[in-house]
Write a structure and sequence with these properties.
The complex is a heterodimer of chains A (102) and B (130). Chain A has 102 residues and is of the alpha/beta class. Chain A contains four helices and five strands, in the order E-H-E-H-E-H-E-H-E. In chain A, helix 2 links the parallel strand 2 and strand 3. The longest helix of chain A is centred in the last third of the chain and has 10 residues. Chain B is α/β, with parallel strands linked by helices. Chain B has a single domain, classed as Hypothetical Protein Ychn, Chain: A, CATH 3.40.1260. Chain B has five helices and five strands. Chain B is globular and about 40 Å long. The chains are: A alpha/beta (102), B alpha/beta (130). Chains A and B meet through helix 4 and strand 5 of A and helix 1 and strand 5 of B.
Chain lengths: 102, 130
């Protein structure tokens, strides 16, 4: 069984990304949305939260929310997949459950 | 697939109302069924027709009403959260002796059981908010 986890707060604001990555079961998917997209940037003090977990989890980021914040896709940690809202819907359908880390 | 949405944030807290709205639109466009949208906590503030943002602002409350009208969505506002925040329909107006009501078109006020039912009846429950 796979779970889609959504994280909507910046890792510099809350610890929800770290909690999610610590507790998510192997094979799960993590989608960063809203201010959560800051967790997808490379070269920050929180980048390792994601990069260290990439063998166990698949990471996605919501493209429109990146764009709204002026974060270019070239600034993302390698291996993170960018999805649009249609991709977000598909992720909720493809996984068995959705867990929002609020 | 049958989906339900829970919105815990008002239209002017952070971004979750708009995220939920965009998600709901995308799901409908992809042919999925939205069983219910449940507004909880500050999310009930999405359901007042008295919201009057500047004309060049996105009108989030109206967007929900328009989407409900177009797709026959069931938009449910939690009654206890609504009472605390002054979201009132005709029934609540009469019951609590208020001088008016403000529920937006397409929304209805009901209980938490509606959220539980949505969770049981839907294949996925997607939560947006704070």
């Amino acid at each position: 069984m796979s779970i889609l986890h959504t994280v909507n707060k910046s890792p510099f604001d809350r610890n929800s990304l770290e909690s999610c990555v610590r507790l998510a079961a192997k094979g799960g998917a993590v989608l960063m949305i809203e201010d959560g997209v800051y967790g997808a940037m490379k070269g920050t003090s929180k980048s390792e939260v994601v990069s260290n977990a990439m063998n166990d989890l698949t990471f996605y980021v919501l493209g429109p929310d990146l764009k709204a914040r002026g974060v270019d896709e070239s600034k993302l940690i390698d291996g993170i997949k960018v999805v649009d809202y249609n991709g977000f819907v598909n992720l909720t359908v493809e996984n068995d459950k959705v867990q929002s880390w609020l | 697939m049958k989906l339900s949405i829970q919105v815990n944030e008002g239209p002017y807290n952070h971004e979750a109302s708009v995220t939920a709205l965009n998600y709901t639109k995308a799901a409908l466009e992809a042919g999925h069924e939205i069983f219910r949208v449940f507004f909880y906590h500050d999310g009930v503030n999405n359901g007042t027709r008295y919201t009057t943002p500047p004309q060049d602002d996105m009108h989030i409350a109206n967007s929900w009403s328009e989407l409900a009208d177009k797709h026959g969505l069931d938009l449910v506002v939690c009654v206890a959260a609504a009472q605390r925040r002054g979201i009132v329909d005709e029934g609540e107006q009469e019951r609590n002796g208020k001088d008016g009501n403000n529920i937006a078109p397409g929304f209805r006020i009901s209980g938490l059981g509606q959220l539980i039912e949505a969770g049981i009846q839907s294949e996925r429950l997607v939560v947006f908010g704070d």
